[in-house]
Amino acid sequence: MTETASCRRVAILTHTGRGEAVRAATRLIEGLNAAGIVCALPREDVADLGVEGALVEQLPLADGGAASVSDFELLVVLGGDGTILRGAEWVVESETPLLGVNLGHVGFLAEAESSELDLICRSIIDRSYRVEERLTIDVSIRAGSPDRADGDPDRGGRDDEDAEVIWSSFAVNEVSIEKGARERMLEVVAEVDDRPLSRWACDGVLVATPTGSTAYAFSAGGPIIWPGVEALLLLPLSAHALFARPMVLGPSSHVVIELLEHSATDGVVWCDGRRSVPLERGQVVHVVQGRHRLKLARLSEAPFSDRLVRKFGLRVEGWRGSARLAPVLEPVGGEPRAG
């Protein structure tokens, strides 16, 4: 059966606490409705936006605040990275791509700005966007075995591999293990691919994705990793150690962080700064490549370097193009030369 515009459905998530987001969402809904596309929003958003009509649906939310959007062709999120990360929780286990519209500050996860609503609306109507997949990470907390209590570097692999999983979640940007008491330091031992790597007295440890390399990990001194690179980033935070450099790991690496029994404080595990759980001394955090990929809708073919320049306001004055783009270069104070 041929799909018609009347049965097309798009889900919309808005940061309704921002007037600009409310106005942008209202305009977008009007434009999509005019093309016969149904827009579905959480019940409270429908009330906050004041939209109604035959082509506006209420999107039921589960107890945790997430919505099932697997039956929608697209989820459009209007807000900053925090709102987009909330939207990622809705779509990560589905085939539905997410299109982020930035109304925050840097907005690295967003594809477009609110000033580009006409382009956004037309791209959705025409389906003239491409889908880019991003690596995620899965995290679990398990009880440590008695053999691990002293952080013995010669124990030879994980004794807790079959231990009961106490808590599990996922992250798009990063998993952070942070200290529970501000005035104390965590004492942890890090393990990669069944072998001990290092022991740190530190404020915390990050395991980030390439997507997350421009977020918390960037602020903590980590490298920027291009989104197309398959990798994990391991980064100790303010470690009192000679070896405490950011490390880029293979995508299939299994990272284990054990909070030692004699640590001066318990810890907290955060996923994307949104979901957290206490980490007790002796417990072990396992981080691996995620089972699911986040699908992001892209409107532009511009390279990631252009995104860096735009988002960070990097200075590029004086660039005169590569040989491929500018075959003739003007030297300073001289004759033109071949590129």
Automatic annotation (TrEMBL):
What Enzyme Commission number(s) does the record list for this chain? 2.7.1.23
What does this protein need as cofactor? Answer: a divalent metal cation
Record bears the keyword Cytoplasm: yes
Q: Which InterPro entries match?
A: ATP-NAD_kinase_N, ATP-NAD_kinase_PpnK-typ_C, NAD/diacylglycerol_kinase_sf, NADK
Catalysed reactions listed for this entry = NAD(+) + ATP = ADP + NADP(+) + H(+)
Q: Name one GO molecular function term.
A: NAD binding
Keyword line: ATP-binding, Cytoplasm, Kinase, NAD, NADP, Nucleotide-binding, Transferase
Q: What does this protein do?
A: Involved in the regulation of the intracellular balance of NAD and NADP, and is a key enzyme in the biosynthesis of NADP. Catalyzes specifically the phosphorylation on 2'-hydroxyl of the adenosine moiety of NAD to yield NADP.
Q: What is this protein called?
A: NAD kinase
> What lineage does the source organism belong to?
Bacteria, Bacillati, Actinomycetota, Actinomycetes, Propionibacteriales
